[in-house]
Design brief:
DNA polymerase, domain 1; five-stranded mixed sheet; about 40% helix; 15 helices; alpha+beta; DNA polymerase IV; about 400 residues; six-stranded antiparallel sheet; Alpha-Beta Plaits; Dna Ligase, domain 1
Length: about 400
């Protein structure tokens, strides 16, 4: 017995663009692009014209000249996400969030309380539409992997249940791009070997797949193609890192502008650390240059910290060391990741223990922003400057 299809993968459709269409009725049914320099999200009407996430704004406008381009509103998206996740957690306590707009839910224990997994999924979709005003696609399957594939196949605004006895019939004819973890580079490698469907990958020996794709990736993808995915829905997993990044378009950026953007990113990440009672040891700077090459710089601090001033000083030093390369090649994206996370209460304080001004300032700023909003107080360097909403900080999939 393979077990039952009790895992749901719920994924909001064209999330940012759908929130914009929800909040502005005149945008409904029209092609909508969120973000100007780089496409952060596109409505299904825009996607039908070839617009894709991360596409340059100029190319997107050429493909869809009648698109309505709107600036991103990250607070609105965050609020919508919280409302949807509240419905998830009201449905089942077993929720594993993947990003701001998708999660796994384990609903096998609800059969005798509220109904079958399919009935739970139907009710979930109805609640998200009625209470939050958004469409959500849901896949139901025995494993997380199959549930995620099913939700993708069901889009937009769909529900697809893959029963255990239909798994091979459903999965094997699909293109290899549907496998979780197959991007453009991996797909191109497989295509060069004549592998275009999941079934063709499954027919290979595991050793052959590993030679094609590398040992770890080959073994993982071959196992998925053969329907092996033992991972349970994890509700207590602690993130190993948190990060945000900001797409900059192709306009030149001065050192002062980059410092302002960096400050905004670090401010938000440090606050997320403190909200989660976490500390970090390593700061990672991620850059994408004008020629689309990428670079990563990192530095590990002594004792782990959640102090904004410490993290910002490290991030600024990393950016300063990259300024010559930025001036030569240009820059289109900047991001920060805080890694080697730990629990704040697991850190042994050093003696003498002092209430330093940095900690006091962080606490006061957090309290003010909690009460009056994130834009209620800013650093002096940000006064009279673009507060950053014209191009948002994008949460990484963690």
């Amino acid at each position: 017995m393979r077990g039952e299809a009790t895992v749901l993968h719920a994924d909001l459709d064209a999330f940012y663009a759908s929130v914009e269409q929800r909040d502005a009725p005149e945008l409904r049914g029209r092609p909508v692009i969120v973000g100007g320099g780089v496409v952060l999200a596109a409505s299904y009407e825009a996607k039908a014209r070839g617009v894709r996430t991360a596409m340059g704004g100029r190319q997107a406008r050429e493909l869809c000249p009648d698109a309505v381009i709107v600036p991103p509103r990250m607070e609105a998206y965050s609020a919508a996400s919280k409302d949807v996740f509240a419905i998830f957690r009201d449905t089942t306590p077993l929720v594993e969030g993947l990003s701001i707009d998708e999660a796994f839910l384990e609903v096998g224990g609800l059969r005798h309380i509220v109904g079958t997994p399919e009935q739970v999924a139907v009710r979930l979709r109805e609640r998200v539409r009625a209470e939050v005003g958004l469409a959500i696609s849901v896949g139901v399957a025995r494993t997380k992997f199959l549930a995620k594939v099913a939700s993708a196949v069901s889009k937009p605004d769909g529900l697809l249940v893959v029963e255990p006895d239909r798994e091979q019939d459903f999965l094997l004819p699909l293109p290899v791009e549907r496998l979780w973890g197959v991007g453009a580079v991996t797909a191109a490698k497989l295509h060069r070997f004549g592998i275009r469907t999941v079934g063709e990958l499954a027919e290979l020996e595991a050793a052959t797949a590993e030679r094609m794709l590398g040992r770890a990736a080959g073994a993982h993808l071959h196992a998925l193609a053969r329907l092996r995915d033992p991972r349970p829905v994890e509700t207590t997993r602690r993130r190993g890192s948190i990060g945000s990044q900001r797409a900059l378009g192709r306009s030149p950026r001065s050192p002062d502008e980059l410092d302002l953007i960096l400050t905004q990113i670090v401010d938000r990440l440090a606050r997320r650390l403190r909200d989660g009672d976490r500390v970090c040891r390593t700061v990672v700077l991620r850059l994408r240059f004008g020629d689309f090459a990428r670079a990563t710089r990192s530095h590990t601090v002594g004792p782990a910290t959640d102090r904004t001033t410490v993290l910002l000083a490290v991030a600024r030093a990393l950016l300063a060391a990259s300024q010559a390369e930025i001036a030569d090649r240009g820059i289109t994206l900047i991001g920060i990741t805080l890694s080697q996370l730990g629990r704040a209460d697991d850190i042994q304080p050093e003696l003498p223990i002092e209430w330093n001004e940095g900690a006091r300032l962080d606490m006061v700023l957090d309290a003010v922003r909690d009460k009056f909003g994130t834009a209620s107080v800013a650093r002096a360097a940000q006064l009279g400057r673009d507060p950053g909403w014209s191009t948002p900080l994008l949460p990484e999939h963690e």
